[in-house]
Write a structure and sequence with these properties.
- It is a single chain.
- The chain has 14 helices and no strands.
- The relative contact order is 0.05.
- The radius of gyration is 23 Å and the shape is globular.
- The N and C termini lie far apart (78 Å).
- The longest helix is centred in the N-terminal third of the chain and has 20 residues.
- It is mainly alpha-helical.
Length: 261
């Protein structure tokens, strides 16, 4: 029986050593970063990704994850230099994996978002974002995210509705069937509805908004609000009132209900 206690201690020591070894892997720190990002702890997530990068400096996914968390932290705190660092991190991800179209999409989003968050809102930055989406599309013509984000920047920021409509149509043409696809395609149909309305094609616009709601009913309040805004801007006030009423009816008390009223 005397040998049992030392053996038990040895087993505990081995378990502790194993746990410490697991904590000192890039995968451990990457998963930690994901969890921290999900909790809204963006700066701590950046630290976790940096720990992962120290262990695996040529892992493009880690650099991309760091870029996203840096951008989220910068947007929350209003720190422009941190946002610049996020772009550098995304560039590093692209350098390490130049054939990954997702990283180019992410860079385009970061550029467009930087223009929004920090009040630059100049056309050249949005043009730069579109260029990144186009690079992604050249690498992978079936990248729905690239087409979708391109459409969003073209219509909401550059007011190039015909080009935006073509981008949304391409995303819709590529299609998809899972939950993530439905969310993205709902956005594409909503954008298409907006662009059609801006071209005076109101019947087609209404059908597009209906399709957006069908694909993502959880987002119906925002789609009705977008529809109402377009109708109002187009001078179709009776129809706009009905759409605002629908947004109010579906709203669960968030800021949209105030905007709709």
């Amino acid at each position: 029986m005397k040998a049992v206690f030392p053996i038990a201690l040895l087993a505990i020591a081995m378990l502790c050593a194993s746990a410490m070894a697991q904590e000192n892997t890039a995968d451990y720190w990457y998963k930690t970063g994901i969890n921290l990002t999900g909790d809204g702890s963006y700066e701590k997530a950046v630290e976790a990704y940096e720990n992962a990068i120290k262990l695996s400096p040529k892992n493009a996914t880690l650099w991309d994850a760091k870029a996203q968390s840096l951008a989220l932290a910068a947007g929350l705190l209003g720190n422009r230099s941190e946002y610049n660092e996020s772009l550098k991190a995304e560039d590093k991800a692209i350098e390490l994996d130049p054939k990954n179209s997702t990283f180019l999409v992410n860079k385009g989003f970061l550029i467009a978002n930087m223009a929004d968050v920090f009040g630059y809102q100049n056309e050249s930055m949005y043009e730069d974002a579109v260029k990144e989406f186009d690079k992604a599309i050249q690498l992978d013509p079936r990248n729905k995210d690239a087409w979708n984000w391109k459409g969003m920047v073209l219509d909401s920021r550059l007011k190039r509705y015909d080009e935006a409509l073509a981008a949304y149509n391409k995303a819709i043409e590529i299609g998809g069937t899972d939950v993530g696809d439905n969310f993205l395609l709902s956005n594409a149909w909503k954008g298409k509805g907006y662009d059609l309305a801006m071209r005076g094609r109101y019947n087609e616009s209404a059908a597009a908004f209906d399709k957006a709601i069908e694909l993502n009913p959880q987002n119906a309040v925002y789609i009705w609000y977008a529809n109402a805004t377009v109708l109002n801007a187009s001078g179709m006030y009776d129809e706009a009132v009905k759409a605002y009423d629908k947004a109010i009816e579906l709203s669960k008390g968030d800021i949209t209900i105030t905007q709709a009223y």
